[in-house]
Each structure stands twice: as C-alpha cells, then as structure tokens.
Amino acid sequence: MAKLLTVFGATGVQGGSVIRAVLADPALSKSFKIRAVTRDASKAAAKELVEKGVELVSADMGSPSSLADAVNGTDTLFLVTLPDFVTGLAPGTEFEHGKNVADVARDAGVQHLVFSSLINVTDASNGRLPHVAHFDRKADIEKYIRSQDIQATFIQPGYYMTNFTNLQLLRKGDDGSYTLAGPTHGSKAQLPLFYPDSDMGKYFVAVARNPSQTMGKQIHAAADYYTPARVMAEFQEVTGKKAQYVQLDHDVYKSFIPPPIAQELLENELLCEDPGFFAGGSLSEGHRLLAEAGLAPTTWKEFLESQREAFA
Ligand SMILES: NC(=O)c1ccc[n+]([C@@H]2O[C@H](COP(=O)([O-])OP(=O)(O)OC[C@H]3O[C@@H](n4cnc5c(N)ncnc54)[C@H](OP(=O)(O)O)[C@@H]3O)[C@@H](O)[C@H]2O)c1
C-alpha cells in the first residue's frame, strides 16, 4: 500500500518543488500518496495541486487543533516554516509554528519528518551576529524536533538564486551594464547558491529514496559556494552583459532596506563571510545523495541560462 506524504508549504516554492519532484520520480510517485496542506484551498496554486491528483487539506500551523486531522495517517512529512518578518506575526511565532507541527507529527507517529532548517547564527558567530532570527528560530525548531525523538532529516537550503531576480538585486545601469551591491567583500563572502523551485524537490527525493542513510543528518543544499565576484563573472559570461560587484558600507547597505529588517538582513549577508552560511559545512554529502538518485543541483550558470530573456 502507498505511504502518505504530507507536505506543508505545498502552494509555495519549497513545498511545491517537493511535490513536483515526487510526482516526477518513477519510484516515489508509486510509493507515496501526497497530501498538501494550505490555509486557503480556493487559491489557484491549491487548485492546481488537486488537478495533479494531490489530496488537499486545510490547516494553519498557528492552530494546533487544525493540524491533527491534517497530519493524521502521515508516514513522511515535509515541513517549511516562514520568518516572523515575512508573516508579520509576533517574534517567536516561526518557532511556535514548527513546534506545533512537530508535536502533532510525534503524536501521529510520523516515521520521517524532513524539515527545511538553517543554522543557529548567534551560536555559530559566538554572539557577533545575534539578529538573524529567521535562521536561529529554524535551528531552535530543529533542536526541538531532535528533543522529541522524532526520526528526522534536516535539509538546509542555501542562498536562493531567485533572490537576485525576484528582489531585483542585479541593477541595470544606463550603459546597459549590471551591478550587484552588497555589504560583503567580493572575493571573501561565500554564497551557497541554491535554486529552490527545482532543487528542494531533488534533495527531498534523494533523502526519501534513502531515509536510513539520512536520518538525523543535516544536508547542506546548494550547487556550490560562489563569491559575489564569481556570481557577477558568470553572469557576464552567460548574458554577455558587462557586470560588476560593488561592496557597500554597512550603513549604506541598510539604508536600502526597510528599517525593521535592515539589521537582520545585513547580518544574514555578513554571515556568508564569517562563519559561513552553513558555518563552513561541506556540500559534498548532498551532492553524493543527489548523484545516487541520478540527480544534480542546478548551477548558477544553468539558472542564468533559464533566465536569459530577463537580461536581454
Ligand atoms: N531566500 C533565501 O535565500 C532563503 C534561503 C534559505 C531558506 N529560506 C527560507 O525559505 C522559507 C520560505 O520558503 P518558500 O520559499 O517555500 O516560501 P513561500 O513560497 O512563500 O511559501 C510559503 C508556504 O507556507 C505556507 N504557509 C504560510 N503560513 C502558513 C501557516 N500559518 N500554516 C500553514 N501553511 C502556511 C503557504 O501556504 P498557504 O498560503 O497556501 O497556506 C505557502 O505554501 C523561509 O523560511 C526562508 O527563511 C530562504
């Protein structure tokens, strides 16, 4: 009998990627039935999932009573939570959401929880970068899951390649050249670039095909570590447009960001210089798991080639 995979964030980037990858995988598409969780079953992304044969359930991570039915009968669960600065909810809500789902997963006897986690930046930087709450709260959720003795794998997604396009970080000048500006040194920061739309699903497939090998582990998910200088050099190579990286003073960088999140996002960037987005963690185990599943991460050049029209 097929096992039940329940996916949180199913209408979003990471959860949507997981569902597409499982449906496309010859083995997992047979071994799993998929249940998607949303707060709004009437939205277009939710209806598209139904058209693909996915079961849809309504639940809210902020409402424990709504979660029990959503998770009931689940064998494998994918969980992604959202930063408080994104939801606009009270500080600490991201942790509460993760804890609420972990609690019902434990009570429902979920056999494998795959959590989209990140490192604790305050700890990894010895207190030098204490404001990257959206990393620290995910690390707190991971710690909580481990304390509950839930069988789990922690996929840590790297720096989204789509940040550069969705947030329009690559600025076109009057002369047609492109500039990326950031607070880190162009050849010292190391960005572990990750294409979430397709690659969260790949990493999930690699983990779900081989749960016993990945239980309890942190998998750092990214194609490679890229300096900002390499980001722009490869941009120039693929698009044929002149491109440069410019390092900004911290206060100038913050002046471009809404004040309530400026310090958090500044420290998020500084993290990439020291102690590192994954605190120096290697990407090789994730690449090995992908290769075993016949998969490979999307490189920055491949991503740019798929976006070439945007920079024509
Ligand atoms: N940007 C980066 O470089 C980067 C790097 C690493 C990690 N991350 C992390 O990635 C995460 C974002 O993931 P994403 O890109 O997949 O986000 P997304 O596309 O915005 O999707 C968010 C999903 O969460 C669901 N959701 C939101 N609140 C919910 C609630 N209260 N109860 C149930 N479901 C809820 C939404 O579903 P409905 O609206 O349908 O309910 C939606 O499917 C963030 O935590 C961020 O910190 C980002």
Automatic annotation (TrEMBL):
Gene Ontology CC annotations of this record: nucleus
Keyword NADP among UniProt keywords: yes
Keywords: NADP
Keyword Nucleotide-binding: no
Pfam families: NmrA
Endpoints of the signal sequence: none
Domain NmrA-like: 2-304
Gene3D superfamilies from the UniProt entry: NAD(P)-binding Rossmann-like Domain, UDP-galactose 4-epimerase, domain 1
Family label: Belongs to the NmrA-type oxidoreductase family.
Name of the protein in question: NAD(P)-binding protein
Organism: Coniochaeta hoffmannii
